[in-house]
Amino acid sequence: MKYETVIGLEIHCELKTSSKIFCSCKNEFGGEENEHTCPGCLGMPGILPVLNEKAVELAVRAGIALNCTIQRASQFDRKNYFYADLSKGYQISQYFHPICTDGWLDIPSDSGEQKRVRIARIHIEEDAGKIVHKNGMSYLDDNRSSLPLIEIVTMPDMRSPAEAERFARKARAILKAAGVSDCRMQEGSLRFDVNLSIMPQGSTVLGTRTEMKNLNSFRSLARAAENESARHQSVLEGGGSLFQETRRWDDEKGMSFGMRSKENAQDYRYFPDPDLTPIELDDAYIENIKLSMPELPEAKMQRYIGLGASEKDAEMLSEALEASELFEGAYAESGNAKLTASLITGDIAAKVRLDSLEGIKFTPSDLGRVVKMSEKGEISLSAARKTIAEMIEYGGSPDEIVKRLGLSQISDESAIRQIVSEVLEANPKSVADIKSGKSKAIGFIVGQAMKISKGAANPALVNRIIAEILEL
Predict the structure, then answer these.
(1) Of 73, 277, 293, 402, which is most buried, counting CB atoms within 10 Å of its CB?
(2) pLDDT, tens digit, for every residue of 364-410?
(3) Would you say residue 446 lies in a domain?
(4) Percent residues over pLDDT 90 in the chain
(5) pLDDT category, 84, cuts 50, 70, 90?
(6) Are 347 and 315 in contact (CB under 8 A)?
(7) Residue 319: strand, helix, or coil
(8) Are residues 358 and 270 in the same domain?
(9) Which domain holds residue 326?
(10) Sequence-separated contacts (24+) of 202-207 with Cβ below 8 Å
C-alpha cells in the first residue's frame, strides 16, 4: 500500500527583547549558570509577573508578517505540568484566546506549484529552563526560564519533509526580516516540533500522530520527518499499531526514541492566569505596527529582480537578512545589481554563511568598490574574485589589495596590441583557422594573450584588437 505523509509544524521562536517576558532579567544568550535569574523567573512564591510590552509588539509583528488576524483581546493561561526544567510547575502561555489566528504562508509544493499552508494560531508564552548534565550529575540552569517566545502552529497541510523544510526556511526568513527574532538556531532561539502521521494515498482520514520535539536545524527537521514517516510505514506494514507519543530525535544516530505518551489539552489543566490581566489592543496600535513593518523577503526579492539581479540570486539574498544588507550597501556604491548579487551568492557564499556572514572583514562599500573597479575595466572579473577572497580572509581595502597583488588590468591599447601581435605571429595555424571561420580559435588566441599578460589584459580590448589586426 502507498502512503501519504501528513505534517504540521510547531515553531518556537524566541522574541528579540532586551529583558525576559515577565521580569527585568536579561534576555541574553550564554553567561554563567543562573546568572540571569530573579525570584520571578525562579518561580518563588508570592512574586507577581509583569508583562513585557515589547514582547506583545513583536508577537503582533509576527502575526502581520504571517498574514494572521490580530486578536483585539487575548489572555494568558497557566499550562500545568511538572518537568525538571520548569521551576514553577506551570508555564504561562495562551490557550483559549491566542494573540494571532488564521494565518497562512505560500511555499512551493513538491510538484512545483505554489501551495498555501494554513497557520492556526500564534500564541505568546514563556520558555522553560535547561537541564545541564556534567560530572555524572544533572543541574538546572534557569537563565532561559521565562524568556519570551511565540509558538507558531500550522495546520497539517504539508505532505513531505521537503515541504516542511521549505515552510520552516521561509518562516525563518520572514521572522528575521520583520525584526521579531534573531532566529539563531544554534543558540536555541528557533526550534521546531514536527507533528507527523501517514495515511493511505487518496484517503482523507488522518492517521495516528506522533511529535518530534526541539529540532534546531533544517537538516534535522527534514531527516527526522523522513525517518519518522518510514517508521510509521514499517510499523503498519508489519501489522503493528501506532500510538500518540512524543519522541526525541538523535541526529548523530539518525534515529528517534520514544519519550512519553503525548498529552492532550485536558492533561495540562489550562485555566486563565489570575495574576495577568487580558491583553487589549486597539486598531490604532495595530495600524502603527503595520506602518512600521520593514520590507519582507517576497517584496525584497521582486525589487532585486527589478534592479537587475537574477531570480535565483534575488531569492537567495532576500532569504538571508545579513546578505541582503550587504547587497544593499554594495549596490549603493556600485550601481550594478547583477554583478553585486552574483558575487555575493557565488564567491562570498562559497566561503561564509549568507545568513550570518560571521567573521567577515570588509564593509558593503568595499564590495561595491570591487564591483565598480571591475565594471570600469580597472580589474578583470577574475581579479575581482581574487580581491574578494583576500578581503574575506584578511580584510584590507580593495585598492590596496589590487595594488599589492598586482591585479590591475592592462587597458593600454598599444601594450595589448604588442602582446596580441606576438601571439598571432607565434600561432599561424590558429590564425588560418580563424580566417577560415573557426571561431573557437579566437578563444585560444585570447587565452594565450591573457596568459602572457598574467591575466591582466582587458579581454574586451584583446578581442577588438584581434579583429582589427585580422580584419575580421
Answers:
(1) 402
(2) 999 999 999 999 888 888 899 999 999 999 999 999 999 898 888 77
(3) yes
(4) 72
(5) confident
(6) no
(7) helix
(8) no
(9) 297-404
(10) 203/4, 206/6, 206/156, 207/6, 207/232, 207/242
Domain contains 289: no
Residue with grid cell 515589547, as numbered in its chain: 54
**Strands 210-215, 245-250: parallel, antiparallel or unpaired by DSSP?**
parallel
- Taking the mean position of all CA atoms in its chain, how far away is CA 296? 13
Closest among 370, 375, 372 to 386, alpha carbons compared: 370
445: cell is: 588566441
CB neighbours (10 Å) of residue 133? 8
Instruction: Please report the DSSP string for 185-218 in residue order.
Output: GGGTSEEEEEEEEEEETT--S----EEEEEE-SH
DSSP bridge partners of 443: none
Residues 6+ apart with CB under 8 A from 51: 21, 22, 276, 279
Asked if residue 127 and residue 56 are part of one domain, the reply reads yes
Domain total of the chain: 3
Phi, psi of 183 (to 5 degrees): 55, 35
C-alpha cell belonging to residue 132: 545541564
45 falls within a domain? yes
